[in-house]
Amino acid sequence: MENQIHRQVDPKDIADNKTLAAVSYLGVLCLIPLLLKKDSHFVQFHAKQGLVLFIAEVVLCFVNIIPFLGRLMWLVVCLIFVLISIQGIVKTLKGEMWPIPILSDYAKKINIS
């Protein structure tokens, strides 16, 4: 599936926009590439995933309200989100279109015109 997605993107688009696409995995900064590069399929792919990841992080903050179990879950899931963000940045800088498991399904439903 990843190779099929990768074939649809212009190599020049990837080369020109790697850095901006990497910003997509830095929390609320995902809005910058999402709104700035609407014409880049590569940037939009990563920005939408970054947006879904950011929304999941915000939702996770509410889990932290639960006394013990919520805080433990928050810590574990936060660590997972940090690792996903790091992997997203690395894959982006390599020019790859890596779909985040589960979250990429929600990212595909986002339509920014």
Report on this model:
68% of the residues lie in helices and 0% in strands. The protein is mostly helical. It has one domain (2-107). Helix 4 (41-63) packs antiparallel against helix 5. The protein starts with a helix and ends in a 6-residue tail after the last helix.
Topology, please?
Layout lengths: L1 H6 L3 H12 L8 H6 L4 H23 L5 H25 L9 H5 L6
Overview in brief:
The chain has 113 residues and is mainly alpha-helical. 68% of the residues lie in helices and 0% in strands. The chain is elongated and about 50 Å long.
Order of helices and strands: HHHHHH
Write down how many β-strands occur, each being a DSSP E stretch of 2 or more residues.
0
Quaternary structure annotation:
single chain
The 3D shape can be described as elongated
- Which whole number gives the mean pLDDT? 90
Give the count of helical stretches.
Answer: 6
Task: Give the structural class.
Answer: mainly alpha
Low-confidence parts lasting 5 or more residues at pLDDT below 50? none
| Share of helical residues | 55-70%
Strand content of the residues, in percent? under 5%
Distance between the termini: 25 Å
Number of domains: 1
How would a crystallographer describe the biggest sheet? Answer: none
Radius of gyration: 15 Å
Provide tags for this entry.
mainly alpha; 113 residues
